[in-house]
Specification:
Layout: H1 4-19, H2 36-41, H3 46-54, H4 80-89, H5 91-97, H6 147-154
């Protein structure tokens, strides 16, 4: 279950990934479930299933289809070179959190402030940069399955 341990691992991994200069950002993402009932409702998401079943850090690494907000390339957008760098860059943060993965102590009490968990939001529109005419256009709509939105639509009012 999501708690201090998994929150600290998430924060440490995300911070380490951000230090790799990959374009990783921590603000926009899928927030953790708000209550145990939500966890059960979203078990169709692989990261939730793995995290719950094995009591471990599980995250989704999404490759942008156009570009990323933190390291834009107005001429080429997302490209094969960025894809290769994204895959390779995950190794350093994995090595950073590996000693903590099965640590049974309260290791999170001793993590540096830079590794603090940042609560993510899926309300990304406030984070889009202002665009000038002729500049690369960011997607204004998500085109992947947003499980929370699907559940909101399908629930009786």
């Amino acid at each position: 279950m999501w708690g201090s341990r998994l929150e600290a691992l998430h924060g440490a991994f995300t911070a380490a990934y951000g230090r790799c200069k990959t374009g990783m950002q921590a603000t926009i993402g899928y927030p953790p479930a708000e209550c145990p009932e939500d966890v059960v409702r979203y078990m169709n998401v692989a990261t939730n299933q793995i995290s719950q079943r094995y009591d471990c850090l599980a995250m989704t690494l999404e490759m942008p289809f156009k570009d990323c907000l933190t390291a834009t390339d107005p001429e080429r957008g997302w490209n094969p070179a960025k894809s290769r760098a994204l895959g390779a860059s995950v190794l350093e943060p994995l090595l950073y959190v590996e000693p903590m993965l099965r640590d049974e102590s309260e290791f999170w009490l001793n993590l540096p402030a830079d590794d603090k968990y940042i609560a993510s939001t899926n309300d990304y529109e406030d984070h889009l940069p202002d665009q000038e005419v002729g500049q690369f256009k960011m997607l204004k709509k998500r085109f992947f399955s947003d499980v929370r939105e699907i559940h909101k639509v399908n629930q009786p009012k």
